[in-house]
Design the sequence.
């Protein structure tokens, strides 16, 4: 795998970054011991040790960020116990950079020349370095288990499944899920485990759901924290209908209009696809899930462009129009004032020409 391919692979980037804080945590413990026990007057060694833990904190923060990108590439079909392992590893990794900062601060404070403070701070710094090393070791153990036992983050995870042996007759091309019979939504399938209950509804109720008024508040509470422009985990943006139809990197389109229970958005909220959303929080309320299912069952209409504002603008109070000033009555002009040229005499009729009588014939 080339260098550019490594940079474009979040799992490889995470594997490359995560080893630096592990190495610094191991090297830091003897450095702190030398500063606090052996070479207490060596200020240069003390600041080198503080710099070591400062770099540890920065690299651990970078590893945490790269780990979020790597999680977005993990297949959704892996078992629940592996997802629990991944989430536990993630939560432990979020603490490493904080421990690095605390140890850095204690080592820097130990340089102060206060006799009553220095021994306590030096002891706390040594304890913090040991605690940081132990925490990093446990975090690395969980990460190594995911890689070597389950293949998470390895190239094998991204390889497509081996093609099935050729059959005598070619398999038909896959077709998208057909819309579900609306009558089936009137009966709620049983919920189990962590899945929120599926509340029944009718298509008449579903057709009354508004994306702008009913669905956006649910998505804002459940999804927008991690799936919005600028922070679209897994490549999924749930702020618009168009973006949800486009989908993310793992499960494709988030909604399938007309078929809510086949839509990945509903499956992730119910825990049928992992990790269950919202990630690390309580499951979605059944009433909120009912709204999502009704909206998708009705065809996922988008009324954002035509929706009225949430708060209508106040209607201005009617104002009385100022009374109009009376217009002066027109004064008729006298007839004598009309110019003479304006009065033209009627044209005289031309006199009729006399008709000459024909002479009588002579005999």
Sequence:
């Amino acid at each position: 795998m080339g260098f550019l391919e490594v940079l474009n692979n979040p799992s490889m980037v995470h594997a490359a970054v995560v080893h630096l804080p592990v190495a610094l945590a191991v090297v830091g413990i003897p450095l702190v011991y030398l500063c606090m026990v052996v070479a207490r007057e060596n200020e240069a060694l003390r600041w080198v040790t503080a710099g070591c833990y400062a770099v540890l904190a920065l690299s651990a923060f970078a590893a945490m960020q790269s780990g979020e990108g790597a999680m977005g590439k993990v297949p959704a079909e892996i078992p629940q116990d592996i997802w629990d392992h991944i989430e536990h590893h993630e939560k432990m990794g979020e603490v490493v950079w904080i421990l690095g900062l605390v140890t850095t601060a204690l080592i820097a404070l130990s340089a102060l020349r206060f006799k009553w403070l220095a021994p306590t701070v030096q002891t706390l710094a040594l304890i913090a370095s040991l605690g940081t090393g132990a925490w990093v070791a446990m975090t690395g153990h969980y990460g190594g288990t995911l890689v070597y036992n389950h293949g998470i983050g390895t190239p094998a995870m991204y390889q497509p499944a081996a093609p099935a042996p050729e059959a005598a007759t070619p398999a038909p091309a896959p077709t998208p899920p057909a819309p579900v019979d609306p009558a089936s939504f009137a009966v709620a399938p049983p919920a189990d485990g962590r899945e929120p209950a599926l509340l029944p509804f009718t298509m008449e109720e579903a057709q009354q759901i508004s994306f702008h008024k009913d669905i956006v508040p649910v998505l804002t509470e459940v999804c927008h924290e991690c799936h919005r422009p600028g922070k679209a985990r897994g490549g999924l943006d749930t702020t618009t209908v168009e973006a949800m139809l486009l989908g993310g990197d793992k499960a494709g389109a988030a909604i399938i209009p007309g078929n809510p229970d086949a839509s990945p958005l509903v499956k992730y909220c119910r825990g049928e696809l992992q990790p269950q959303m919202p990630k690390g929080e309580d499951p979605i309320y059944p009433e909120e899930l009912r709204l999502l299912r009704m909206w998708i069952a009705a065809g996922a209409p988008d009324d954002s462009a035509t929706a009225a504002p949430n708060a209508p603008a106040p209607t201005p109070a009617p104002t009385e129009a100022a009374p109009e000033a009376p217009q002066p009555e027109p004064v008729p002009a006298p007839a004598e004032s009309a110019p003479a040229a304006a009065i033209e005499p009627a044209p005289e009729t031309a006199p009729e020409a006399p008709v000459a009588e024909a002479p009588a014939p002579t005999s």
